[in-house]
Every structure is written in structure tokens, then in C-alpha cells.
Amino acid sequence: MTQITEILNHNTAFVENKEYETFISGKFPEKKVVVLTCMDTRLTELLPRAMNMRNGDAKILKTAGAVISSPFGSIMRSILVALYELQAEEVIVVGHYECGMASLNAGHIMGQMRERGVSDEVLATLEHSGVQLGQWFKGVENETEGVMHSVDMIANHPLMPAGVPVHGMLIDPKTGKLELIEDGYERLRGKAHSTPDTP
Questions:
Q1: Residues 48-66: what's their mean pLDDT?
Q2: Each residue of 107-133: pLDDT tens digit?
Q3: Residue 62: half-sphere exposure toward Cβ, Cα within 13 Å
Q4: In this model, does residue 197 exceed pLDDT 60?
Q5: Mapped to the 3 state alphabet, what secondary structure does 100-138 carry?
Q6: 186 and 192 in contact (C-beta within 8 Å)?
Q7: 10 annotated ligand-binding residue
Q8: Which among 47, 63, 171, 186 is placed 20 to 30 Å from 96, CA to CA?
Q9: How far apart are CA 23 and CA 86, in angstroms?
């Protein structure tokens, strides 16, 4: 039995047994937050439980390492849509310890691409077209740096609405323990104090 067949068979029973009823919620996040986290498999159920988030509580976005690679890519667009259109009022970036992005090696990935059939000609064409694959697949120095990179990109984005707190956290993928590394409320208070009075 293929993976897709197994999924579809399960889904048929899921719908027939009305198991979906416990997940019914609205499209707006009850807790008014957007959570950007890593795609790590250990966080699929652990992170929402550790944060006391149930279905319908938050908009949850996932990307490798919880790292935003482009200020005008799909992750940043999704955050802005959540804030402007879907009633979210805060952003929480949650990275995790033992993250693969902290040890990501662009050269190794490109070697894997070659082994799986991507030709040197294709890689060279992309490089000559301005796609810097080495930079695109670059990891981060450590998990804290990855979270702070995303927090800073979000908080300083030119399209961010004023007054939105952007928090940074790290989660232990074994225990679910959260560590606050950037308090978005403090950052906003700091900005308020550093803004010169206007006449």
C-alpha cells in the first residue's frame, strides 16, 4: 500500500466517523498570534501543546529553521496577511535546539542534488542567472542567531504595522521547555523611549 493510499483510506474513516468535529474552529486566530516555527518533525504536536495552542488559536507557519530568507518572500507575506487581514496582533518566532539549519552545509546539499540527477549545467545556469545557491542554502551560526534574524527582519520590515510585538523563543525538542530570547513588548517599549519627541 502506498503512502497516499494509506492517507486516503484513513481520511475516509476520519470523515465518516466525524472525527473532524473536535477541530472545528473559525479562520481567525483566537489568541490573535502568528507563530513562525521550524518544520522539524518533533515539533508537529509538541510545539502547540507546549504553547497551550489548540486548533484555531494561532496562525502557524513553518520553514526550515524558522528562518526568513527573503523580506519579500512567501513567509513574510503570510505574516503580513495574518496581521492585516486575519486579526493577528502579535508574532512569535520559535526556533529549537538541535536545529539542522545550524549545521546546514550548502556544498553538501548541492552534492546531493548532483547525485539525484540535477546536472552541473543546471546549477551553472542558475548561478549565471543570479541565483546564489550557496547563499540560498546557507545555514545559521546557531539557533539563537536564526531566531533573532527572523525577529529582526519581521520587526523592522517596512510594511509592518506599528505597535506589533515580535517575540523570539527557543524550544527544547525533547521536553518542550520554552526559553524567551526576545521580548517583543520590551522591544516596543525601547523603540518608544528612543523615538525623539516631535514638536
A1: 97
A2: 889 999 999 999 999 999 998 998 888
A3: 10
A4: no
A5: HHHHCCHHHHHHHHHHCCCCHHHHHHHHHCCCCHHHHCC
A6: no
A7: no
A8: 186
A9: 19
Q: Let me know whether 47 and 63 are in one domain.
A: yes
Residues 72 and 153 in one domain: yes
- Structural domain that includes position 123: 105-138
Q: Is residue 47 part of a domain?
A: yes
Share of the chain above pLDDT 90, in %: 81
Q: Are residues 82 and 149 in the same domain?
A: yes
Please give the single-letter amino acid code of residue 31: K
Q: Is 4 exposed, middle or buried (0-12, 13-18, 19+ CB in 10 A)?
A: exposed
Residue with cell 525623539: 196
CB atoms inside a 10 Å sphere around CB 187: 17
**pLDDT tens string 152-188:** 999 999 999 999 999 999 999 999 999 999 999 999 9
Q: Which cell numbers in the block locate residue 122? A: 543546471
- Region 2-29: mean pLDDT is 97
Q: Are residues 167 and 85 in the same domain?
A: yes
Residue 134 has what pLDDT? 85
C-alpha cell of residue 92: 512569535
Q: Is 40 labelled a binding residue?
A: yes
Here the cell at position 133 is 545557491
Pair 132, 34 in one domain:
no
